[in-house]
Fold each of these.
Amino acid sequence: MTTAVPLDTQVGGHDGLLSSADGSVIIKPCLPLEIDFYNALSSNDAFAHLLPHVPKFYGTLRLHGRMDENGNIDVADADDEETGKDEPCLLMGRSLVLQNLTHSFSKPNVLDVKLGTMLWDEDASAEKRARMEKRARETTSLETGVRLTGFSVYDHTEASFIKTPKAYGRAITKAELPLGIAKYFPLATSDVPRGQGLPRDMLHQVLSGLVRQVETIREAVRKTEMRMVGCSLLVVYEADWDLLRQHLQSWPPDPRLDEEDGSADADGDSEAEEDADSDDTAASDDDRARPPYLAKLIDFGHTSLRAGAGPDMGVIMGLDTTITLFGNRMEEVAGLEP
């Protein structure tokens, strides 16, 4: 039996994400469609161009276990007789085992951007479709293809992360999106780590690199015939000044040179009944240079690959908006008074 703990870096999506005790992988309850999506990426060369832009997929688990008073869960495979005791058990359906994208960061600043203009499945009930259409109209989703689902930024003075919840992203307007992006990419007001933010040179490098990565993701999505309802762009960058400067010096400036990090295993097995913290599945971040920043697509519970349907233009609109927002913030940072 192994231990899973609540994922402490989660800023968006549904509750219930767990991570392995060492933090290298996450255990995500999922719908069958998301398993199908990861299996298709792992087995079909036609979708290989998407692999660098999603978390690594290690397989699936069907787990149950016991939760302690701190929310930690002792888990085991559902067929493991060790858990067949009389203590109260938490039953879990089949879950994805995925790379934890924040694991290689010391102080990860995390942003979840909901992509797309269509927030409902085509087979959704009339009631749900009406509700989701209303949400898209009343938020920034319909007009821009993005909604800031949530983000967290490390505060050096408080020695903790300051989280901005979903309610913020649902309340702001299109005109206020740049303010939200500035809150996630703050500029330091001191020449030593104090409060939130990075020095100008490092923040500019982070934004420049992320723009290139999102541009590369956009190109991959443009080549793929699929519909991505409810997917997100997860953005992470290092808030520790010393580590970030070190990693910026060693990291490839072109995201296309980083195809190993974040790509799915080519031989991923949908029924890989392996422990979430297995040495056979969790790649060691110490074996390669750690990224100073990254952007990946996540959340494919309502994504389907559809030959002949063309790319999802609502998602492409959202990626274009993100590129513009990040690029404008980069220019703003360059022009701000020191």
Amino acid sequence: MVNFNDPSVIETDFVIYIKLVHLAGGLYMWEYFTTLDYEWSYITGKRPYRRTIWLYAIGRLLSVVTTVLILLAVNVKSPINCQAWQTFNLFLSYLAFACASGLFMLRVIAIWLWARPIVVLSVALSLVNLAISLYGVIETRMTWVPGLGCTPIGNDWLAPARVSVNAVFATDVILCILQFIGLLRFGRTRTHGIWQLLYKQGLIWLVAATMVECLAAVFVNINLNGPLSLMFELPSLYAMQICTARFYRVLMDFNEHPDGTCPLEFPPDFLSRREMTTVDIEVARDIASRRPSYPTPQVARSS
């Protein structure tokens, strides 16, 4: 049986971890720059302005900055201020996670038609995640060790990472379940239009991201050794960003004309309540299609 605490095994796992960081970081940089034209289309006015584009763009940009900082840290040969680097990097990575989860959360809220219990639950989950993320940023301690680089210190140095990863994973699982239940509520609407898109692609993208987060949660909890415990933490960030960003683009493109107009009809009272979302528009159309039609009364003609 493998002794995961053996120094030679830890060294091998550390090399694998470094290679995985480079591979995952390179894949995400490729994903970012090959899809950067989407943000540019908003800057140039080719697409109608949406407030959610800020969550989309900022989350992706923060993930790029996090990638650059991590790649610099694992390749640097001279001593650096590891504590300052780790604090800044953790803050940016947690903020990137928050942006991706925010897009996820807003979609779930829209599917539930802004039902107050769902809104309250989503906001509560976001606040809990924020508090736990701040705990992770404050409690994590790192120092420079010759030959190893930036190394965590403390008797239970993995505890902040464990709490943060578990919190993010639990939150996204809850949101996945809420989205699935919300889609099931509309029965036959799953077979057409945007509901089919949400039911198929939406769940596929989000379940894929959650599965990578599950790997990160498993490894950080079993704690075989340092490198293995953190092996999937960075890939889980990339998975969440890529999946939510790709589905965001698909969802926005679904209902946009080249001139930025919306082709679907909806009751005017929807606009008076809040800003329209793509899901709201489809719900309005579906509600309109369910309204009973009554025969037009025939007026008797006098002879």
Amino acid sequence: MKIVITTGRSREAPGSPTDKLHSIARSHPFTQQVDIVLPSHSTLEESLLELKAAYWRCECTLSDFLEFAKTHDNATGSNGKVVAYGTANPTEDDVWCLDPRGFLTLAVCKETYETLGLVGKSFPWKEHKTTHVVHISLRDPRLVKDESKVWLSYGTKEADAIRRWDAARGPWKIWCYLDSELDVSIPGSARYELVRSVRIQESVHIPDIQRDSVVLPGNCEGDRVDEWEDYISSLFEWVGMASLGSPRISVSDRCEPYIAVYTHPTPSRIGNITTIRWKGFIPSVFVQGIADTISSPNLQAPPSFVAVTAQCVGASPVTYMPSDTTRPPILRVPEPDAEDAWSLVYVKEEAGGWWTLAESVGGRDRRWG
């Protein structure tokens, strides 16, 4: 597993494209769970609980779904996006996804790859050399890098290959969400609301987060760096414990040391925390709404911090969107239990706020090389 920690100050207005707090939602469009942990705060909790979103599930051929996606894009223009992924069936590992840029990514076995007859490349990991990836653009053909064969354009050859694949394989079980209100016209589709749960833990150790403990100055080295790493590690461990509702953070916890040993971050105070969890295929605009809510300038007397943790869809061949829209998606092995998550601790101030972000991916993910 690889983990990267970044920290910074959020001075821009909410929604600014250069604001890390808000760009995190756009760069992770394939999310299946979001947890929010905060010192109990009725006003902010009410605002968060007002957020709503839905996704769709259907069963149809990939060709029919792509026709729907292209029709949706044509009807809504740049304001409408279809994001989707197809799950593998019990007899194969082939999967695909459609990202917000309109690019279809196929991750298929050697037999399927040879049958399709489309140009792609194999995974670089030895144990997955027989799995091949194909990228196809459903939108502007000018984005296709023909000279390097990074993208294929969705033309007659590609459409025919997918139709032949559909005829041999049959329909897919598809999860999707939309960024517009256009009616879904896929036969057999069903609409689902995100599943939400709320949990309150009373009398727990709550980290008393100090800015200097979290945001590491650029010129620090030696022992100061070691102290910062230790504190950040304990802080995110606490966030994980709180998200799970672990009794280890409770003031009354008396677990025997030979069963479990845990020390909460210091300094800390005693109080109540609220955890809100959403599950489903979560639209990126919903995660964006969370960022807007916790950083809203209208929020008076905000809580001392808010922690947001998201779990990506491990079974999707793409989970991360690079900021450079001409780059192909980052290579990763799609596995249901693959590690791909991020956790952010945000502290609001009168003008903006500051944050610490931990991102983690599994060993078979090329996001950081």
Amino acid sequence: MASTSAAASRDNGVPGRLRNAASTLYSDNQSLIAEIRKAMILMKEVAVDLERDGQSQMVKELEDAIVELLGTSEDCTQFSAAIQSVGNEHQPRPELTDFKKLFEDEVAKLKASSSFAPQSHPLLRQFREAVWNVHHAGQPMPGDEQEDIVMTSTQCNLLNITCPLSGRPVTELADPVRSVDCKHIYEKKAILHYIKSKHGRAQCPVAACPKILQAERVVCDALLQIEIDEMKSMSKQPGRTDVIEDFTELDDEDEEEEEEEDD
């Protein structure tokens, strides 16, 4: 009886230890992605200086390096997602688990479903646009329509630009955090109070988001502050004071249109 109880206790502890290990690996991988993003920001600044000095060949080499780093960053992102999936979904079995195969299968599924295209990535567009603006500020880039420029330039990695609880812009939050599950951003103190008040059924306060929030899965991840700083930088560019749209507002508008159609 005692041995059976001990075995059950070990089995019950395995998922928790696996999730903790996966969480550590995920955090390390996110830090690597953040360092890649920092490198791309620095490369963009260097490219602008080189363009001013007429070093077009070196600018092109930096652009090629950006494309390569985007691919590396995408690989890291897929690895992070695979780590999370294996860590959260695996359950102990009597037979030995081949974690390497589990991970590789999950990565293969993610790659198969990915629509990643570095040449159309917003960060590459931002790099090219920064270089173009050195000598052609305010002019459309070759082959672009004005509408295309607006749509591409306003793309941002942040899903919401205001905290749904405090109403403050994310660029002004004293302690911003992001949900691991739905990627929405909040003021830390406000969201933790909200989660506590809901007694385990805290649905994300962003309109139309169905995710249930957990305090331990609302964090300041490695990329969040970098992306907020990028938003600040974009909004300070000439003619860009209102370029970043809050996509949660679009969700509200879509809901209203659907309700009108149903009526």
